[in-house]
Design brief:
alpha+beta; 10 strands
């Protein structure tokens, strides 16, 4: 098995994928762009240590990503060399484990996506399963039991050298503020191996749910089980929580887990309408998160050019729309477009500063002289002026189109039509 991991074809594909994914540096500070040169100089030595079982992975670099609702998500970023080796391992293990994974598992799997998971959840709601058991695993990636995980892998993999290397990656430690902390449990979220390892761990839960005949959708550690009544939901939640905590040795976050209506919960950033034939909509929390980001880019205190603002907005919103175009509520995208343009008009109004400049600019946009003077000397607030006809008409959609601002609603309809 180690021979397959270290085969030239497998390594070539692994190198290309690591380079394509880019990403930040690890504890050694080496960027991805230097990986190929590093391997040219040191690969024979690295390969020999891998074959002899003496290779020692470096600790992962701990990175904290703020969560929208407070707290942080902990990521462990391996060095680019270790990412390359992990990728090579994952490419060999995936074809072995992938065919046996549940049809209800969508996370980090080929030809499956968040959109597929949300569509399946919608189908369950449409079929009448209008209660959801929303399970949240507390710090899942930090709590995986190494012995249980290695036992699951060893059921399929007999190569002792490869098993030893995988365990070394699990126990490579985390560097926090320059100090290496040993890891006795968990699989650091951030390396190429962690998605596959998480699916191996949680496949046991999937099989348990399938055996009980339950309808569920899982994406990584986000699991939703759909039932027909609150009573059934409470019963399932209690028994599955017991299975997760006693059998899988994981911890359920009781504060975030709940039995509720699907339209009152968030799943992968989406929710549903209450209709008998439900529509997929953007969860309110996801919309608020997007607005917070737009506020940051369009803040009056942010002293950057309009060209730069629009560039940052396009970069963020195009990716955001690509994910949320699954929503069946086009009016949300239209309203967000209008709100974003109003934010930009507010920035322009402040940039014009003194009344004389405002009057001059308004006249250049075709506003009559008397109206330009009246509004140019107005003491109304920025936000109110930004929605007034005096700015709304000349600085409307066509104006911002000419500056290169991408329309969310137009992109939404383009994506929906493909």
């Amino acid at each position: 098995m180690m021979e397959r991991v270290l085969s030239p074809d497998n390594l070539r594909i692994a190198l290309k994928r690591v380079e394509k994914n880019k990403g930040s540096h690890g504890v050694d500070g080496m960027p991805v762009k230097d990986l190929r040169r590093h391997l040219q100089l040191h690969w024979q030595e690295i390969r020999r240590s891998l074959e002899e079982g003496t290779y020692e992975p470096q600790p992962v670099r701990r990175v904290e990503i703020p969560k929208p609702n407070g707290g942080v998500r902990l990521l462990g970023i391996p060095t680019v060399t270790d990412r390359f080796i992990q990728q090579a391992i994952a490419q060999v293990l995936s074809p072995i484990f992938e065919p046996t994974f549940s049809e209800h598992s969508y996370g980090f799997r080929p030809k499956r996506s968040t959109h597929d998971a949300v569509r399946q959840a919608k189908e369950y709601v449409r079929e009448g399963y209008r209660w959801v058991v929303d399970l949240d695993l507390e710090k899942f990636f930090d709590r995986v039991n190494h012995d249980r995980l290695m036992a699951k892998i060893a059921q399929r993999i007999s190569d002792k050298a490869l098993l030893k290397l995988i365990r070394k990656y699990l126990q490579s430690g985390v560097m926090i503020n320059g100090v290496v902390v040993e890891t006795e449990e968990g699989t650091p979220q951030g390396g190429p191996l962690s998605p596959l390892l998480s699916n191996i761990v949680l496949d046991e839960m999937d099989k348990e749910l399938e055996q009980r005949g339950l309808r569920f959708v899982r994406y990584a550690d986000d699991s939703n089980i759909y039932v027909k009544s609150r009573k059934a939901g409470e019963r399932v939640k209690s028994s599955i929580t017991k299975f997760i905590e006693q059998t899988l040795k994981l911890k359920v976050n009781h504060g975030k887990s709940a039995v509720d209506r699907p339209w009152k919960r968030k799943f992968l950033g989406f929710s549903f309408t209450v209709n008998k034939d439900p529509k997929i909509r953007i969860a309110p929390q996801s919309l608020q998160k997007a607005k917070k980001k737009i506020r940051e880019i369009t803040s009056r205190r942010k002293s950057i050019s309009m060209e730069r603002r629009i560039q940052e907005l396009n970069q963020y919103l195009i990716g955001w729309c690509g994910h949320f175009a699954l929503a069946e509520t086009p009016s949300v995208f239209q309203r967000l477009d209008e709100w974003t343009r109003r934010r930009l008009r507010m920035c322009i109004w402040k940039h014009w500063k003194n009344p004389r400049t405002k009057v001059k600019r308004l006249q250049s946009l075709g506003v009559p002289k008397d109206k330009a003077y009246e509004w140019g000397n107005s003491r109304k607030g920025y936000w109110r002026i930004a929605c007034s006809p005096i700015l709304h008409r000349p600085l409307g959609k066509n104006y911002f189109d000419s500056l290169g601002l991408r329309s969310l609603s137009e992109r939404y309809f383009d994506l929906r039509s493909t």
